[in-house]
Amino acid sequence: MLRTASDTSSDSQSTLGPKRVLVVDADLTYLGTIASELQTDGYDVVQATSGEQAIELLAVQPVDCVLLDLMMPGLDGLETCRRVKHAPNLRDTPLILMTVREGREVMLEAFGAGADDFISKGLGSDVVAARVKAQIRRKRFGDEHRAVRERLLRSETEATEARAARQLAEARAALAEQLARSNFELAGANRELAAANRELEAFSYSVSHDLRAPLRSIRSFTQMLEEDVGSTLDEESRGHLTRVIAATARMSDLIDALLELSRISRVALTRTPTDLGPIASAVVEELRGRDRTRTVEVTIAPRLDASVDPRLARALFDNLIGNAWKFTAQVAAPTIEIGVVETGGERAFFIRDNGAGFDMALAKNLFTPFHRLHGAEFAGTGVGLANVRRIVERHGGRVWAQSKLGAGATFYFTLPGH
Ligand SMILES: Nc1ncnc2c1ncn2[C@@H]1O[C@H](COP(=O)(O)OP(=O)(O)O)[C@@H](O)[C@H]1O
Ligand SMILES: [Mg+2]
Fold it and tell me: What is the pLDDT of residues 45-58, one digit of tens each?
């Protein structure tokens, strides 16, 4: 049997609205008495006649207080009380056990089962109703107290969060300001550096340029001397003249290389989407044309797409393929491979040969002008790789090499912005 004294659908646990009390007793008469007592006081009363029914009811309908008779057939009051107090969502609901039995023992049992209060039915229904009211009041104070504490805690958390956010914003602003300052200083330093570099380049350009004329004089007058009086000289003196002429030729090559380096640094950069393959094969064809005695197997991968200045790309390959060509001169079956690999999310183009190679331990200054790892057995000025680095860096890329003495070399470079 389940009857509600009122069909209000408001939330029984709200602090407004009427409070709802579940009264559980097998004795229908007593149930009626208590119910009307509570209703008179303005409570909603839900009635149940057994522990089982009370539990079923509580599962679907929360109440503000449970009044439970100890002696019931089936699930008795103590066991019902235990079950209610074990349910996490019901644990806080005040529960009063009532009985006709008196005595310490039964009272201790009731509190042991989790009851919030214990009352003797003999005291009269008005006293029982007063106990119910007292429990509901206690519960309300507890709830209000908890709500206030939660509100406080929340506002404290909010204040802490706001403080943290403010500190973060301040730190960020300070950092941004510092960054802006450093950037400004850096830009200044960069401008100074660029100006110094320009001056240095202009200087080396004019020095190289101005050295050409006197060098040409030395060369041509020495050649005239050789032609005019060469036959009258002894062998040793003629050898000296030949060496002077060879040295002027070498110096002329060095000056040309320096001028090329400064040209590469100064020429305007015009990037266009370019397939590097045809540029590489043009370089190879030129090398073959110049040296028909050599058979070099060259493979060029398809679609070597990059965004480059095509003229600088040509100079780049002139140097790198030129080196691969030169340093494979002494191997039986020379091969050169030109391709692209993916390294660390970056496309790196490479030129690989199976030539003389070099010792990586000595390669620290490989890309510095005039730095050579081989002697006169391979002709050269040592400026080629400096040119390569300039070209790659002007495109925002990096260049590096991998080699082993006697086991060929691979030169890699990146051209970001493709
Ligand atoms: N493919 C290569 N194999 C072996 N050594 C190389 C290779 N490319 C460059 N090198 C080494 O790096 C040096 C510098 O190269 P580079 O600047 O082009 O000068 P150069 O070709 O005039 O000697 C070379 O003298 C050589 O020792
Ligand atoms: Mg070279």
Answer: 999 999 999 999 99
Q: Is the CB of 412 under 6 A from ligand 1?
A: no
Sequence-ordered strand ranges (E) for 95-251 = 95-99, 117-120
Q: Is there an atom of ligand 1 within 6 Å of 384 CB?
A: yes
3 state SS of 14: coil
* Whether the CB of 355 sits within 6 Å of ligand 1: yes
Ligand 1 near 327 CB (within 6 A): yes
Torsion of CA 187, 189, 190, 191, to 10 degrees: 90
321 lines ligand 1 (CB under 6 A): no
23, containing H or E segment: strand 20-24
Tally the C-alpha atoms within 13 A of residue 112's C-alpha that lie toward its C-beta. 8
Please give the CATH superfamily to which domain 3-123 belongs: Response regulator (3.40.50.2300)
| Ligand with an atom nearest the CA of residue 403 | 1
Give the range among 14-23, 328-337, 371-380 with minimum mean pLDDT: 14-23
Over residues 119-178, the pLDDT tens digits come to: 998 888 889 989 999 999 998 898 899 999 999 999 999 999 999 999 999 999 999 999
Of all ligands present, the nearest one to the C-alpha of 411 is 1
* 8 pLDDT above the threshold of 70: no
Taking only the tens place, the pLDDT of each residue in 68-107 is: 999 999 999 999 999 999 999 999 999 999 998 878 898 9
Least distant ligand from the CA of 257: 1
CATH of 271-414, one of 3.40.50.2000, 2.60.120.10, 3.30.565.10, 3.30.70.1450: 3.30.565.10
Atom of ligand 1 nearest to the CA of 351: 1
For ligand 1, atom 21, which residue shows the shortest CA distance? 380
Q: Give the HSE-up count for residue 285: Cα atoms under 13 Å, Cβ half-sphere.
A: 7
